[in-house]
Design brief:
Blueprint (H helix, E strand, L loop, with lengths): L17 E5 L6 H8 L5 E3 L3 H9 L3 H7 L10 E4 L7 H12 L3 E5 L3 H5 L9 E5 L13 H7 L3 H4 L4 H19 L6 H14 L6 H8 L3 H13 L3 E4 L16 E4 L2 H8 L9 H21 L6 E5 L5 E6 L4 E5 L9 H10 L3 E6 L5 E3 L2 E5 H9 L5
Parallel strand pairs: 1-4, 1-5, 2-3, 3-4, 10-11, 11-13
Antiparallel strand pairs: 6-7, 8-9, 9-10, 12-13
Helix pairs in contact: 6-12, 8-12, 9-10, 10-11, 13-15
């Protein structure tokens, strides 16, 4: 029997309020909505017949709902995978305005909606996001298991996780992106996907990737935008202020949305709690926790990295330089040099090194926090 996880997303909607719920496929959106809105009318646009019926005539939605007793429409109407039928949003808009209905519109990509100039309800729907399981949502969390399998709910405890990860990448990430006509050059995009194996978590060299894929740098930038818009990854841009040291100011980094997916694409997963692969996965893990916590807490601070042209680098800068975070599995005295350099220049409110070493301690002005202590502070909303 699949394990049921308690999700920390709070989708509390006042009567009459609609919402979008965005998240990559398999993050648990459907399970979450079916559990939280048991009495809601549900439309699944992955179902071929439902999708074809509503594509042919979106107004059927209003006609079907008009036949239902009002008592059955007190809860929001759920429409899953809304990006499959963008034209449906005009009818949803009409029903919100004329019939006073509310909706939860669930999707794994807003790109197709935006490219089609689709009605996104003009602020009438709040936005929420679902992520793979976070540290606080997994009982008896196992760091190495998360690095190896990722934290998608159906895969984290799956003994056949390698098959599941392969199927996710081959059947969803590649094929569905092609099927939705987000890119038509299948060969080039496949080569781009392969190129992610050496640029994940690193500064992106668009020109080098373009040469390998046989496309222009502009096309490579578009490919990264596709992955971001389909909620498969994140771009992290450099932190920069005028004056001071010469820093990297334009090259972003890219992180995939799940540890297991990244390991499968890169063909590198840590087999023990040490080494380069483990260190890279640890940095990726902390980044994903920052992204999830920011959303759960409904905060909007930016996440950047800082790197000087001389090679000093701090992994994550939160807000407007408010918190500096370096991620290291093991701490040596020279590892504190970059974060101290940033602190001397920008005076952040907190300078933190996150580590797998316990116990937590303070070294001068730098907090060296065991990762579980750091995550407890982060998810409690006490970091920034």
């Amino acid at each position: 029997m699949p394990i049921s996880y308690q999700r920390f997303l709070q989708l509390d909607l006042p009567r009459g309020q609609s919402a979008f719920l965005w998240g990559a496929r398999k993050t648990g959106k459907t399970t979450f909505l079916r559990a939280g809105f048991e009495s809601s009318t549900y439309y699944d646009l992955l179902d071929f017949r439902t999708r074809m019926r509503l594509t042919a005539n979106p107004s059927i939605l209003g006609e079907e709902l008009a036949m239902m007793p009002r008592s059955e429409l007190q809860s929001p109407v759920i429409i899953d995978e809304i990006q499959k039928v963008p034209e449906l949003l005009d009818e949803v808009h009409r029903l919100i305005e004329s019939a006073g209905l509310s909706f939860v519109l669930c999707g794994s990509s807003a790109r197709k909606l935006r490219r089609a100039g689709t009605n996104l309800l003009g602020g009438r729907a709040w936005g929420f996001h679902m992520f793979p399981l976070s540290w606080r949502e997994i009982p008896a969390f196992d760091l190495l298991q998360a690095f190896t399998r990722g934290t998608l709910p159906d895969i984290y405890d799956n003994t056949h996780f390698r098959r599941s990860l392969r199927a996710y990448v081959e059947d969803y990430l590649k094929q569905e992106i092609f099927a939705e006509a987000l890119t038509r050059n299948v060969a080039a995009f496949t080569r781009f996907f392969d190129a992610l194996s050496y640029c994940h978590g690193e500064l992106i060299n668009h020109a080098a990737i373009a040469r390998e894929c046989g496309v222009s740098s502009k096309t490579v930038r578009t490919y990264f935008e596709i992955l971001v818009d389909t909620l498969i990854g994140y771009l992290v841009f450099p932190y920069h202020q005028q004056g001071g040291r010469e820093t990297i100011v334009s090259a972003p980094k890219f992180f995939l949305f799940d540890l297991g997916i990244a390991g499968h694409i890169m063909e590198v997963t840590p087999s023990q709690a040490r080494g380069t692969a483990f260190g890279s996965a640890f940095e990726h893990f902390i980044f994903l926790e920052l992204v999830a916590a920011r959303s759960f807490l409904e905060q909007d601070w930016d996440i950047h990295y800082w790197r000087t042209k001389s090679g000093l680098e701090v992994d994550f800068i939160l807000g407007r330089g408010t918190v500096a975070i370096e991620v290291k599995t093991k701490i040596r005295s020279r590892d504190l040099r970059p974060i101290r350099a940033f602190s001397q220049e920008f005076s952040p409110r907190r300078s933190v090194v996150v580590t797998t070493e316990s116990p937590s301690r303070r070294v001068g002005d730098v907090e060296v926090l065991y990762y579980e202590d750091f995550l407890a502070i982060l998810h409690a909303g006490e970091l920034i």
